[in-house]
Amino acid sequence: MTLTEHEKLLAGQDYDYRDPELQRLLARGKTLVQRMNTQTDAESRSRSIHELFHAAGQRVTINGHFEAIYGDHISVGDDVFINGNCYFQDSNRITLGNRVIIAPDTKFYCGQHSLDARKRFGIRSDGVVI
C-alpha cells in the first residue's frame, strides 16, 4: 500500500511538502488563521477555532495572536485557554485534553523531516539539488 504524502507526514516519514494535497491544507490553514486573528468578537473567533482545528470542545479560547501551520492536525478538549502569541507547528497531531491552559509565547514544534536536502527537495536531472 502506497501512502499519500500527507499520510507520510503524519507517520513521521520523509514526505514531499510540495504535494498538492499538502499545499491545499497549508493554504487553508493560513487563510483560517489569518481570519481568526482579525476577529475581535468572541463568538466569531470561536467559530473560526472550530473551523480551523480538527476537533475543538466547548469553551475554547485563544487570547490574542495565534499561529499554526495546518490547524487541521490540532484537537483540543473542553475549557481550553491558549494565551497570546502561541505557535503550533502542527506538522503532526497536537492533542490537548480538557482544562488545559497554555502560557503566552508557548511554541509547539511537532514536525519531522530529513536533514538531507536531496531527500527533502529532490535532485534535478543535472545532479543539482532543488
From TrEMBL:
In what residue span(s) does the Maltose/galactoside acetyltransferase domain sit? 6-58
Which SMART domains does this entry report, sorted A to Z? Mac (SM01266)
**Keyword flag Transmembrane helix:** no
Keyword Transferase included in the entry's annotation: yes
Q: Which domain of life is it from?
A: Bacteria
InterPro entries, alphabetically? Hexapeptide_acetyltransf, Mac_dom, Trimer_LpxA-like_sf
Q: Would you indicate the residue range of the signal peptide?
A: none
Q: Which UniProt keywords apply?
A: Transferase
Q: Say which family it is in.
A: Belongs to the transferase hexapeptide repeat family.
Task: Spell out the protein name for this chain.
Answer: Sugar O-acetyltransferase
